[in-house]
Design a protein that fits this description.
single chain; mainly alpha; Hypothetical protein af1432
């Protein structure tokens, strides 16, 4: 047990002190550097998730980020493109919300909403095969991020299942991941 943990004597938050919270805040700030490491590990784990596609989900994510970068997207959008399916490491059906929650403190709202809603936007290309409404994206038409989500889904995401596409490796995106996850917009 670390000395810090041994010195934290409260077992309930309503018994804590300002000094104990000072230690917690300091250690939380220091641990922020580990976030990027965990994100990179989660991304690497997507290499084990294929779920019927022509490429694994890591390759798909790398292709999506590669396309975003080639289209001139900014660093937050490139990293969000890379992480848009990171939730599949936990739950395929709920992956957009998981990815959005991971990204929430690190990206601006239009990027967050694009990732949160990306499945409905991408649904234009496959929902009909599942008996779902391929125009599900229309519920977001009035949102200021609609055009970004449309570009993401149509130009980058749905086209990124190609085993022959010249895909940049994770190491190329690692500095961007470290930059974005090294800071937080809000707590």
């Amino acid at each position: 047990m670390s000395e810090t943990i041994a010195n934290q004597t409260f077992r309930r938050m309503d018994e804590s002190t300002q000094g104990q919270w000072s230690v917690i805040v300091t250690e939380t700030i220091e641990a922020q550097a580990l976030v990027a490491e965990r994100i990179l590990e989660m991304l690497e784990s997507l290499a084990d998730v294929t779920v019927g596609f022509a490429v694994d989900q890591l390759t798909h994510s790398l292709q999506t980020a590669t396309r975003a970068e080639e289209a001139g997207a900014d660093t937050e959008m490139i990293v969000a493109s890379l992480c848009h399916d990171i939730g599949k490491a936990i739950s395929v059906p709920n992956h957009p919300r998981i990815a959005a929650e991971i990204l929430r403190p690190y990206v601006r709202s239009e990027v967050l909403e694009t990732i949160r809603a990306h499945q409905d936007f991408q649904g234009r290309h496959y929902y009909e095969h599942l008996g779902m409404d391929p125009d599900a994206r229309e519920q977001y038409r009035a949102e200021p991020w609609f055009a970004l989500a449309e570009q993401f889904a149509d130009d980058w995401d749905q086209t990124s299942f190609d085993p022959d596409y010249p895909t940049k490796p994770l190491s190329h995106f690692e500095p961007m991941v470290r930059e974005v996850f090294g800071r937080a917009h809000s707590l």
